[in-house]
Design goal:
The protein is of the alpha/beta class. The chain has 2 domains: 5-163, NAD(P)-binding Rossmann-like Domain (Rossmann fold, 3-Layer(aba) Sandwich), CATH 3.40.50; 176-268, ProC C-terminal domain-like fold. It is 50% helix and 13% strand. It is built from 11 helices and 8 strands. The chain has helices spanning 12-24, 39-46, 74-80, 102-109, 141-152, 166-174, 176-193, 198-218, 223-230, 236-245, 249-268, and strands at residues 5-8, 32-35, 51-53, 67-70, 92-95, 115-119, 129-135, 155-159. It has an 8-stranded mixed beta sheet, sandwiched between helices. The longest helix has 21 residues, at 198-218. The mean pLDDT is 96. Bound molecules: NADPH dihydro-nicotinamide-adenine-dinucleotide phosphate and (2S)-3,4-dihydro-2H-pyrrole-2-carboxylic acid. (2S)-3,4-dihydro-2H-pyrrole-2-carboxylic acid binds at residues 98, 170, 174-175. It holds the Pfam family P5CR_dimer. Belongs to the pyrroline-5-carboxylate reductase family. Keywords: Amino-acid biosynthesis, Cytoplasm, NADP, Oxidoreductase, Proline biosynthesis. Residues 4-99 form the Pyrroline-5-carboxylate reductase catalytic N-terminal domain.
Length: 270
């Protein structure tokens, strides 16, 4: 059974990517094999029509995948990788793990293995993700193009030459959706405190974040200009922004949060 892709780990991130690839039509279900030990997650993957197996040993000998994509936790990834070394003749290896450097995969698979480190985020599930990639010198142009095309089904793809920046990338776009989800939670709670029914507060918070993000993405104006367009002199927005921006309060908080994530990514790579 030939397969284009073996996806190792189909939890939050693996499933989000797989769902994006399949729904875009860039990958057919019969071109993917998923390896996932957790029964419920394996069954969820199988509902998408892919072959879902409990361990690497169950993959047919003739699978010859073009890509092996690791979407398991950084804490276990280097124990998981060796079982996939047998696909080296056909495969390039892609890791989405936070922290784990390309050199660690070269150590496990050999210096001649093609390795791509990718930092996706969960909006990939609906084609709105941000994927940042960096590859070692063993990855040829054909494979780079193939991976870029596949990842583009999940959203925006950017390449960086300096792997050292991947910890910062992880802290901004990899973890970033969680910051935005928390912002929605906080705006909802604040709306409720101001007297709105919770469902109304949630709708207002969600649609406001969605609309503002879409406007910022589609407009030619800078976010700062768009902010000023909302802010009437001495009006309601100015009152709120004096709380958020006074003493650079939110900026300092975001800087601290991103630095905490970046430092944790560095730690996970050790
Ligand atoms: N979640 C996110 O938003 C993002 C995550 N990432 C990265 O993606 C990776 C996965 O994260 P996430 O999806 O959140 O984690 P999850 O725990 O949701 O998914 C990982 C899955 O891998 C399974 N697994 C464990 N061992 C193996 C194995 N030997 N073979 C196959 N599957 C195995 C786990 O099963 P079990 O639980 O039974 O061990 C689990 O179901 C991490 O490295 C993370 O850094 C990157 C960007 C964003
Ligand atoms: O929290 C984490 O470690 C992973 C990496 C980026 C998003 N989730």
């Amino acid at each position: 059974m030939a397969a284009k892709i073996v996806l190792v780990g189909c939890g939050n991130m693996g499933y989000a990517m797989l769902a994006g690839w399949l729904s875009s039509g860039k990958l057919a279900a019969n071109e993917a094999i998923v390896v996932e030990p957790t029964d419920t997650l394996r069954e969820r993957a199988a509902t998408l029509g892919v072959t879902a197996l409990p361990d690497a040993g169950a993959i047919p000998a003739d699978a010859a995948p073009r890509l092996v994509v690791f979407a398991v936790k950084p804490q276990v990834i280097l124990n998981v990788v060796p079982a996939y070394a047998r696909f080296k003749a056909s495969a390039t290896y892609v890791s989405v793990a936070a922290g784990t450097p390309i050199s660690a995969f070269e150590g496990a698979l050999g210096a001649d293995a093609g390795i791509i480190r990718c930092m996706p985020n969960t909006p990939a599930a609906i084609g709105k993700g941000m994927m940042v990639v960096v590859a070692n010198d063993n990855v040829g142009a054909d494979t780079s193009d193939f991976v870029r095309d596949l990842l583009s089904a999940s959203g925006e793809v950017a390449a960086i030459g300096d792997e050292g920046l991947m910890d910062a990338v992880t802290a901004v776009s990899g973890s970033g959706p969680a910051y935005v989800f928390h912002f929605i939670e906080c705006l909802t709670a604040a709306g409720e405190k101001a007297g709105l029914p919770v469902e109304t507060a949630k709708l207002l918070a969600m649609q406001t974040v969605y609309g503002a993000a879409a406007l910022a993405a589609e407009s030619r104006e800078e976010p700062g200009t768009l902010r000023q367009q909302v802010t009437s002199p001495n009006g309601t927005t100015a009152a709120a922004l004096s709380v958020l921006m006074g003493d650079d309060r939110l900026k300092m908080l975001m800087t601290e949060a991103v630095e905490a994530a970046r430092a944790r990514s560095v730690e996970l790579g050790k």
